[in-house]
Amino acid sequence: MKKRALGQGLEVSAIGLGCMSLSGAYGEALSMDGAAHLLRGAHDRGVTFFDTAEVYGPFLNERQLGHGLKGIRDHVTIATKFGFKVDAEGRQSSGFDSRPVHIREVVEASLGRLGIDYIDLLYQHRLDPEVPVEDVAGTVGELIREGKVRHFGMSEADADSIRRAHAVQPVTALQSEYSLWTRDVEAEILPTLKELGIGFVPFSPLGRGFLTGGVKPGKPLPEGDWRAKMARFGGEAAAKNYALVEALGALAAKTGHSSGQLAIAWVLHQGEDIVPIPGTRRLDRLEENIAAAEIALTPEDLAAIDRAFPEEAVVGGRYWN
Hints:
- By secondary structure, the chain is of the alpha/beta class.
- The radius of gyration is 19 Å and the shape is globular.
- It has helices at 32-44, 60-68, 100-114, 133-145, 159-168, 189-196, 235-253, 259-268, 283-290, 299-308, and strands at residues 3-5, 11-13, 17-18, 49-51, 77-82, 84-86, 92-96, 119-124, 149-155, 171-177, 199-203.
- 36% of the residues lie in helices and 16% in strands.
- The mean pLDDT is 95.
């Protein structure tokens, strides 16, 4: 697969793999061997960038990656995250914890679960209102100098916080949601990243599966699937949003692609320093997703996509409203 560079010279595959779904979220967790089959299959097909977090599971996701990527660690880039409150038994409570001492605790625990000596890219999962972002950046900078971390990232951060953190420890990548139906970052965040030389890693570039056309209005989601509580996935909102997906699918069909492939290709065309991380639990879906890296869209194509999927036509908020 083609490679792309994030900030600070970090080169990764043009499309990465978001691994959250392996440990649940959209249904039952995969077995360790089932997750390993998918992870190895992704690497065999050119994916070198794998995204996890301590809170996914919690803890299980990192263990799955440690098991699945064992033996090829030097050929992959592993990103993980800290920042939520999770107790030693893996119970997540509400609230954040980015205290320097806790960051160090999480890093040591993550290294152990992943079975690695260093973390390639360490994200602050969410800003902590109780801890100055300068203290967070400074702590990660210390970990970088100690060799336990290679690069510093942030997730869902605002432009001012990004600037403040970057002044203390250069930020390699920002991770935030970005897709045809979630374009909040375009006004201020993307220009800030471009100015500072920070790469962008969009999660949910397929709208948590909705943009593939596989999540249909009225079709029940798997038991335990947290999308069932999201405003865009239910009732009248889902029906109106699905009409946009059908319009996207009609455009894609003209060139022999799927709506999901066109959605990922659209994200890739928003900048050469953008590396989306669609998630999946199936190899056939993974193959479909990574094929989007080969799609070349003209300015006319991009304009047609924007007309078919106008941002203002999306119904419902990102999460619960």
